Amino acid sequence: MKIDLISIFPEYFAPLGLSLVGKAIASGLVSVATHDLRDYTHDVHRSVDDTPYGGGAGMVMKPEPWGDALDAVLGASPIERPVLVVTSPAGEPFTQALAGELASCPHLVFACGRYEGIDHRVIEWAGGPFDVRELSVGDYVLNGGEVAALAMIEAIVRLLPGVLGNPESLVEESYADGTDGLLEYPVYTKPASWRGLEVPAVLLSGHHGQVADWRKQQSLALTKSRRPDLLGDP
User: Fold this and answer.
1) Most confident of 97-106, 161-170, 178-187, 225-234
2) What is the dihedral of CA 105, 145, 7, 150, to 10 degrees?
3) What is the pTM of this model?
4) Would you say 93 and 82 are in contact if contact means Cβ atoms under 8 Å apart?
């Protein structure tokens, strides 16, 4: 998988060199390239924003630098139509299912906006050479799209074959197909007793069927309590 990241703060993506994503990059499973949007400006101040048409507070990211940056990424891409992910609080909710869908894409480009967002003509134009996805990581607003991009990349890359040491870890975690999309059950490890709290006896019983039933019940109870929407409840 090839990932391109466009931002006015490319140094924000240094954490991608850590942990499992960093190992995936080092092993060649993923290649990551960062691009400073200011490198595609044409004025002495390297301006990337201007006042909004129609008035209002804040600044809007100018279309020219974005167009030139995306042209450069396209020119270096072996894929005919890369997927352009535009991080936005007004975007489609990013989910585990969507992470799985994007994990099958050979080339992802992340456009990380700032201020009041990117001139909408950039998104309209990009619908020609790119498959555009405007995505949100939650019902809140961040200062910029970099944090959202980091979260999405972590969720996507860990689903690639060879990234996790034990792929079975993906089967029973929250939102996974193997759990019918439920939240994951509570987990425990040694010691069996800690600060007066005991590991549930069923997990020490050795009865795999009973353990499976307990975990299913715990997942249902947890989902009903915290995320009833996943069960179709209002």
Assistant:
1) 97-106
2) -50
3) 0.89
4) no
